[in-house]
Amino acid sequence: xxxxxxxxxxxxxxxxxxxxxxxxxxxxxxxxxxxxxxxxxxxxxxxxxxxxxxxxxxxxxxxxxxxxxxxxxxxxxxxxxxxxxxxxxxxxxxxxxxxxxxxxxxxxxxxxxxxxxxxxxxxxxxxxxxxxxxxxxxxxxxxxxxxxxxxxxxxxxxxxxxxxxxxxxxxxxxxxxxxxxxxxxxxxxxxxxxxxxxxxxxxxxxxxxxxxxxxxxxxxxxxxxxxxxxxxxxxxxxxxxxxxxxxxxxxxxxxxxxxxxxxxxxxxxxxxxxxxxxxxxxxxxxxxxxxxxxxxxxxxxxxxxxxxxxxxxxxxxxxxxxxxxxxxxxxxxxxxxxxxxxxxxxxxxxxxxxxxxxxxxxxxxxxxxxxxxxxxxxxxxxxxxxxxxxxxxxxxxxxxxxxxxxxxxxxxxxxxxxxxxxxxxxxxxxxxxxxxxxxxxxxxxxxxxxxxxxxxxxxxxxxxxxxxxxxxxxxxxxxxxxxxxxxxxxxxxxxxxxxxxxxxxxxxxxxxxxxxxxxxxxxxxxxxxxxxxxxxxxxxxxxxxxxxxxxxxxxxxxxxxxxxxxxxxxxxxxxxxxxxxxxxxxxxxxxxxxxxxxxxxxxxxxxxxxxxxxxxxxxxxxxxxxxxxxxxxxxxxxxxxxxxxxxxxxxxxxxxxxxxxxxxxxx
Length: 667
What we know:
Helix content: 25-40%
Strand order of the largest sheet: 14-13-10-11-12-15-23-21-20
Low-confidence stretches: none
Largest sheet: 9 strands, antiparallel
Number of strands: 40
Structural class: alpha+beta
Strand content: 25-35%
């Protein structure tokens, strides 16, 4: 076994590899860029080496600097994590030439499977079910449109060297095929240095299900069940689970055996993932093979008890697999939620800045519940524009799917993040949806369930009443404690009236020492709601039982009440004395300013292209500008017919959120 390894990556995956290496008694070396000088993985490793500037092209993508760091520190092997150089065959060959072990598959397997065109052909030869499409190289836009028509819309336009949702577009007609080809080609060139594109049939209403394989250098290969990865946004996975709520044992076995056959066909050795799309009749088609550790690997670890990083290290060191196929058992259910630095209220556009608060839920492990949080950030750290916007991977495990979902809901409610936009409210909303709980998933889930984007969560009546009762209770007791400390309140007061406003809804309560009585003013009905909590004023997280319901919520004190975040809802909960609440209906509402005559930058990013000029007449839906943020190109379109009166930002300009790109005047 190795005595020292170098992790050629950053963020949560670097931290993840370091954790297992420490358990195995292996010393670790971190590498870092200018932007990551204070990063968590740097402090966790035994040693750290600076390798260049903040952009990945000046640091994490420079194989020669990685090799130099290995030689300088005496690292015997390199774990690449995912992304960056993890699927770069030339980097593997350079390591081999330098006498350094690559903790991953051999270069020929990476090369064969990393090229999506070649991998499709090899899969077909290995009798793996494949999707119809055109596997040759496509030279230009006109040829892309012609091929799309021959394959038949809808089609998937993909970068041959792509991954992580980049260089990928779905086209339903000629116009979308043209734009999709251009954008995919551009993204592929900037992200992978390879702009080759291929086109295949897009299977409607598909599930994205992948098989985890594990192979050694002695010809042994097994599969470790599947992961359901259907909930995606812009082809980027958001929520994963294992096993899939859709597969039966027979289909699982067929998919697993075909995955093993493909791995053996290319001489695979290490952990890898074979991805499939699966239709409603359980027909499955090979999508691609990821020759690396997947982002979502923790859910497989949780249901199998197998540490995939440990296995990768052992295989790279030449050991035989110690696990046979018939020894692999799937136990319970695991769910992973990817926490991203993005604003769900702005169509999930990237958000950067400092984490003024970062308090994840406590990690926990017992016989019937596990809470795990893989992260690479810390309280006070910064989310940079240079890298992927992932904050953390929050995982829960339980004996059954319903309990795992419930545990995830509680864990998300307890996850405190401030300073940047994040997608926790959206993740919480999905956990509460009946369709998700029933397991009726497709890759179109987000588009179908949130056709107008995510606009927040409206709690049901029962949940809202519980939050109102809790606010009445803690509001009064906070005030009671303040007066008590000032010795100005008669402590014999045991019953006081409070009115709670959530939006336009009003709830009236009598607050007791350990309960509240909800009073229905219209029906002259009252209900006792007992409250149990050890919350104290100043605390931002509250765990309470209100009636029969367990509540985990984030509470921030405001002038007239609290900001409460619970199950994806973000509410301004005001607590008044009843006579004050009576007057609130007369308060004027301030309207936001009209910004419809401006194109604002929706995220921090760089203007890479302007599609119009001053004086141009534009139509609704017409592309106006392209802004690149966190390695993704975003097309900004006209919302209505107008004339461009002023261009306020040049190509190359780096803009903040809501900075003006151009102005319009009505025609």
